[in-house]
Amino acid sequence: MIGFFTPRYIRNGKEMLHAARKMYHYKRDLLSPSDVSHVEAELARLSGALRSRNRAEIESASQELDRFFGERIPVPKHPEIQENCEVFLVAIVIALGIRTFFIQPFTIPTGSMQPTLNGIIATSTETPPPNVLARVVDMILYGRSYFNVVSATDDTVRSVRDVTRFVFLTRAEVICDKQRFSIPAPATAVMRTFGIAAGVPLKAGQVVARGFVNTGDHVFVNKVAYNFRHPHRGEVFVFNTAGIDKLNIPGTPSQFYIKRLTGLPGDELRVDPPHLFVNGRLASGAAFERVMAGTPLAPKDDYKGYGNGPEFLTSPESTYRVPEKHYFAMGDNSYNSSDSRYWGTVPEQNLVGCGMFVYWPFTKHWGLIR
After folding, report:
1. Angle at 113 between CA 238 and CA 146, to 5 degrees
2. Residue 301 pLDDT class (50, 70, 90 cuts)
3. Whether the bond into 115 is cis, omega within 30 of 0
4. Is there a contact between 293 and 301 (Cβ–Cβ < 8 Å)?
5. Which of 64, 115, 166, 274 is paired with 6 by a 20 to 30 Å CA distance?
6. CATH fit for domain 3-72, picks 1.10.3470, 1.20.1740, 2.60.40, 1.20.1270
7. Residue 219: how many CB atoms within 10 A of its CB?
8. What is the percent of the chain where pLDDT is above 90?
9. pLDDT digits (tens, 9 = 90+) for 136-161
């Protein structure tokens, strides 16, 4: 209310002083030493005139600052484009900083963490894909892609391979003698779900693959936590595979894995399916209890109960003590998980962070990871 009664020339002078100071600090590196001295003198003159409420000096100093900046730093033809570009670049820098030091997104590619986290899941259906609107809604909510692949002629499958497009989009390419198909799912999922493999004959009009694929859960990983605390037994954690021989192919970069941390340095572990024993006692905690109470996510004849080709914890009686500065990782889908039972422990320096939040798709897994 008090500002309402302030004379217009005072208000205009204050606005000019604020704008001129901002422009001066923003563009100072573009000015010569003499221009810098001139601007500082005019800013001081305008500030003093405002204190003394000298109208003539206020208007004179304001006009001089307006003239100076108009000549030395002209307004670009399309300032809104420059401003938007600057905002965009700042946003990218901030996002990269957050990703590098604080929170990083990851995608779950496999089913080794089911039912806690879903990997990429392909599903066969009898009915054709729904209408376009339903497909768009399903993509937004569930990350679901539909497909309906039909053979145009009699043919034979020669190979099924993964093809990466636009750096991060992986699709299965089915190559036949006379035709080829592209299916939005990993090759392993396509072969397992639809029975497509080299040598399989196709008839004209035959449905090669009909159904949909759900993207794996997209999670945020807290990269800061382990800088302030030790990893906790039972939490979901992410690590890289550098130095873990059985997880690396010479000449290729290391990968990121996500598992449940089941053993801390010094822990003695034993597995009597479906139970995990830590230091002679049944593993405790809601996560372990949920996993041990679950049922195998594969036909009984397809699992052995000790992971994929185990070298550690190979029988209900065998034990394993986790070395110092190492951690034991297991998938929640433990009957069908390639984990520390096969390729060994995770060195401390490989830890990336703990799983924090499923941010997409919007299924029952959305929310905090437990």
Report:
1. 110
2. very low
3. yes
4. no
5. 64
6. 1.20.1270
7. 23
8. 46
9. 999 999 999 999 999 999 999 999 99
CATH of domain 218-368: 2.10.109.10
Q: What local confidence, expressed as pLDDT, does residue 3 receive?
A: 54
Mean pLDDT, the chain, integer = 86
Residue tagged 């004849």 (tokens): 301
Neighbouring CB atoms inside 10 A of 280's CB total 8
CA distances (Å), 94 to each of 12, 221, 224, 364, in order?
A: 36, 17, 16, 30
Question: Residue 97: its pLDDT value, please?
Answer: 66
Residues 217/117, Cβ–Cβ less than 8 Å = yes
Those residues whose C-beta lies under 8 Å from the C-beta of residue 185, and which sit 6 or more positions away, are 120, 122, 145, 147, 171, 172, 193, 213
Whether the bond between 361 and the residue before it is cis, its omega within 30 degrees of 0, is yes
3-state secondary structure of 155: strand
User: What residues contact residue 306 under an 8 Å CB cut-off, 6+ apart?
Assistant: 271, 273, 313, 314, 315, 341
More confident site: 351 or 89: 351
**Residue bearing the bigger pLDDT, 22 or 76:** 22
Which residues is 271 bridged to in the sheet? 276
Closest-CA residue to 342 (of 235, 236, 225, 247): 247
* Domain spans in the chain, listed from the N-terminal domain onward: 3-72, 121-214, 218-368
Mean pLDDT of 35-43: 90
Who wins on pLDDT, 236 or 93? 236
For residues 161 and 172, is the Cβ–Cβ distance under 8 A? yes
